[in-house]
Amino acid sequence: MMIEIAHAKLNLALHVRARRPDGYHELETLFAFVDHGDVVDVTPAEAPGLTITGPFGAALSGEGDNLVTRAAARFAEAFGGGAHAILLDKRLPVASGIGGGSADAAATLRALARLHGVARDDPRLFAIADALGSDVPACLLERTALGRGRGEQLAPVAGIAGTPVLLVNPGVGVSTAAVFERWDGVDRGGIGTGNVLDVALEGRNDLEPPARTLAPEIDDVLDALAAQPGVTLARMSGSGATCFALFDSEASCDAAAARVARPGWWVQPTRLL
Ligand code: C5P
């Protein structure tokens, strides 16, 4: 068996620059990862299998065409290695802007690569990740990085590891495609360069306004986070609805976690990797 954590992905900033003829959007985004995620456990087996457990497992059960299954199938086509039984412990809310399925697919690829002696930076792994979804290459790399194109063109940057983060999801799933469709088409400019925190603070998430029209609860989450003592940045991640706040200390992050808790909300204190 081979265990990998599918760490949640954050977009510290996400600037949408243009609609593309292929239906995707041209982005500039600052990816970061946190010390909390789903758990993927891969074991060689006679036949392929996927078992889903965990607090958010029920939201996925019954989906035959899971990204994890597809990642394993693409890996087998490229590298062989036979069939695998995969256990996915779903600890991250589904369809929530923090990677989820993309992180799970990437963790599956990393586990299979370790199991079968494939280098983690093998370009063929990245090609598989790219074909599985726009965020999968970033989740495979799992490092603070600037993403361009659909998010798949990655340039690692120095992160701010250890920064306390609070993740809050209001308990509503949001469709990424529906949020992108509602983007107003206005290019508000690119992402800056320099220290990651400064770049994030000067940046924005252009998907916040369209996501809030689909899930007004996002306003409540952002208002609650922004009002907490010790917050340096409160923002939505990806296409939502999960929002995050960076804190100046672990104590203020933990205190905020207790204060913002509401029935139906997922509240998770963690730290940047
Ligand atoms: O690449 P992925 O399958 O994760 O994307 C899901 C949907 O999100 C796409 O079908 C597209 O509608 C939208 N998307 C986009 N521009 C991006 C990434 C995703 O329009 N850069």
Counted by DSSP, the helix tally is: 9
Topology as H/E string?
EEEHEHHHEEEHHHHEEHE
How many structural domains can be distinguished in the coordinates? 2
Number of strands: 10
Portion in helices: 25-40%
Beta-sheet strand percentage?
25-35%
Question: Could you report the average pLDDT, rounded to the nearest whole number?
Answer: 96
* Stretches with pLDDT under 50, minimum 5 residues: none
Rg, alpha carbons: 18 Å
CATH class of the largest domain: Alpha Beta
End-to-end C-alpha gap: 25 Å
* Structural class assignment: alpha+beta
Tell me, briefly, the overall form. Answer: globular
CATH topology grouping of the largest domain = Ribosomal Protein S5, domain 2
- What hetero molecules are bound to the protein chains? cytidine-5'-monophosphate
Please describe the biggest sheet, giving its number of strands, its sense, and whether it closes into a barrel: 6 strands, mixed
Descriptive report:
The protein is of the alpha+beta class and 273 residues long. It has 2 domains: 2-156, Ribosomal Protein S5, domain 2; 164-271, Alpha-Beta Plaits. 31% of the residues lie in helices and 30% in strands. It has 9 helices and 10 strands. The strands form 2 sheets. Strands 1, 2, 3, 4, 5 and 6 form a 6-stranded mixed β-sheet that branches. Strands 8-9-7-10 form a 4-stranded antiparallel β-sheet, with helices on one face. The chain starts with a strand and ends with a strand. 44% of the residues are buried. The structure holds cytidine-5'-monophosphate (C5P). Cytidine-5'-monophosphate is lined by residues 23-25, 27, 133-135, 150-151, 176-177, 180.
